[in-house]
Amino acid sequence: MRTALVIGTGLIGTSAAIALASRGVTVHLRDHDPARARTAAALGAGTDEAPEGRVDLAIVAVPPAHVAATLAEAMSAGLARGYLDVASVKGGPKRELEALGLDLTAYIGSHPMSGKERSGPLAATADLFEGRPWVLTPTRDTDTEVLNLALELVALCRAVPVVMDADAHDRAVALVSHTPQLVSSMVAARLEEADESAVRLCGQGIRDVTRIAASDPRMWVEILSANPGPVADVLSGVAADLDETVRALRSLQSADEDKRRDGASGVEDVLRRGNAGRARVPGKHGAAPTAYETVAVLISDQPGELARIFADAGRAGVNIEDVRIEHATGQQAGLVQLMVDPAAAPSLSASLQERGWALRTT
């Protein structure tokens, strides 16, 4: 791939453009808002000047409702050898293109499984897709050359290609992406009218659950409007679990010992099923999940402290698999939770204590 045209310079389009441009591809940028394309160009994503001839690959990075029309326009104009979209739903756009009677040999659907709570070109980064799955949904007519262009795009963005059927993709993202967004928003919505005394107690648990609730509502309305059925199906199952859990909790309030026992059993059941589901979430580098041990270290909120603790862990010869920071309310301090291989935890703890760090139990 030597040339590409990115249509839509939001977070995903601009991030892909920056990644391609940084690896020697000549990238042309187009957006319905020329100012966004100029912003992306200023960030090193390419040029907002139109290509002189046909490019190798056109990447359509517009909201799902506009994908088919944008692709149809680009394909009719013969802008590229191959055409690809990055919308978060795949079945609907494919059916719309088929209904338009377009030749789909030059088209392949795709969806990079990466994003942020922030949107727009200013949120873009070249490493947004590194190590992340990038789903490809070829049609039965997709030409091999176009598939190879898509695979090259994924490789240049340092993502991991995953080939799926379009409708299977939509059911999958309803479960692992779209429903979590709604559930996170629903939990966060409970905080809107909560007493200030309750909000002040927010810890890492509520922060983890509500992180993605900060996402742009307008963007998510567009996404959910393109995949309502599969999301509703998953939410229906969640609603059934909620109903059962509410009944179980009510039973725990009963004076009847048998009802309290049944209530405890019901709550335990959903928690255990949650354990089993969480255990299936892929771990580091997509491998089977690993149970890490946490070494929690008290840290002051001063420049250089994080660098110092990571350096001390390196001197101990221990690889940090993951890290979380929990800030202390009303204090210039917090806990850094270092997740490490269980066998390495004792030596790391001893080494950090020798270097003056205060450890805490979690």
Automatic annotation (TrEMBL):
Q: Taxonomically, which superkingdom?
A: Bacteria
Q: Which Enzyme Commission numbers does its entry carry?
A: 1.3.1.12
Q: Does the keyword Lipid metabolism apply?
A: no
Which InterPro entries does the record match to this protein?
A: 6-PGluconate_DH-like_C_sf, ACT-like_dom_sf, ACT_dom, NAD(P)-bd_dom_sf, PDH_C, PDH_N, Preph/Arog_dehydrog, Prephen_DH
Q: Name the pathway.
A: Amino-acid biosynthesis; L-tyrosine biosynthesis; (4-hydroxyphenyl)pyruvate from prephenate (NAD(+) route): step 1/1
Which reaction is catalysed here? prephenate + NAD(+) = 3-(4-hydroxyphenyl)pyruvate + CO2 + NADH
Q: Where is the Prephenate/arogenate dehydrogenase domain?
A: 2-289
Does the entry feature the keyword NAD, yes or no?
A: yes
Question: In what residue span(s) does the ACT domain sit?
Answer: 294-362
Question: What molecular function does GO assign, one term?
Answer: prephenate dehydrogenase (NAD+) activity
Query: Which PROSITE patterns is this protein grouped with?
Result: ACT, PDH_ADH
What is this enzyme's class at the first EC digit? oxidoreductase
Keywords attached to this entry: Amino-acid biosynthesis, Aromatic amino acid biosynthesis, NAD, Oxidoreductase, Tyrosine biosynthesis
Q: Family, per the entry?
A: Belongs to the prephenate/arogenate dehydrogenase family.
Name under which the protein is recorded = Prephenate dehydrogenase
Taxonomic source organism:
Streptomyces gardneri
